[in-house]
């Protein structure tokens, strides 16, 4: 879809919380690469800071000297779901894609998502599907958590989708209201979103994603695990309440 005969605009939303050293150069490298690979498009980059306590604002100023880079400075750490909602709210693109600020899967899945949307007008949402090789690289605790989430997804999402937690998704602007209507602030907000889309019978596709060799996987603390469990329980309760109301 084009407006005023301009090239299609794509918004890349980048949730950000205390990125590792060198994040700015990594981001600049990926922006340069993606701009080259999608040269027929206009690309808007939105950094959605989620209350980072260590973020060099001077580097942010250098990034935002470019007209296509926007920095949203959310002062309070509310969670990844909140950062993505705020970032997508600022997005102007016909296609909106979000991924982590360190581009853990590189630019390949972004290019593939854009291709899917351009070639299949019936597709409205694309998610990243992590391969078995990806899971082998995870710390043991995260492997176990991921397997548990896969099982819950098979039950909760009627077997349509098992991998909801790869940090890259793409959507058409028309379903942006569904993103904004999610209530979950933490990592598992995507389960709530995908649940909504399945109920609306939205056409959903996937792309396989592979971790960059340089990515260092962090482990989850007990505090984070408890918070995610609470959020997941809330999603289940909201869904059951919604079903009961039908």
TrEMBL record:
InterPro entries: Glyco_trans_2-like (IPR001173), Nucleotide-diphossugar_trans (IPR029044). It comes from the Bacteria. Keywords: Transferase. Gene3D superfamilies: Spore Coat Polysaccharide Biosynthesis Protein SpsA, Chain A. Residues 11-177 form the Glycosyltransferase 2-like domain. One of its GO terms (molecular function) is transferase activity. Pfam families: Glycos_transf_2. GO terms for biological process: protein N-linked glycosylation. This is Glycosyltransferase family 2 protein. It comes from Dyadobacter frigoris. The lineage of its organism: Bacteria, Pseudomonadati, Bacteroidota, Cytophagia, Cytophagales.
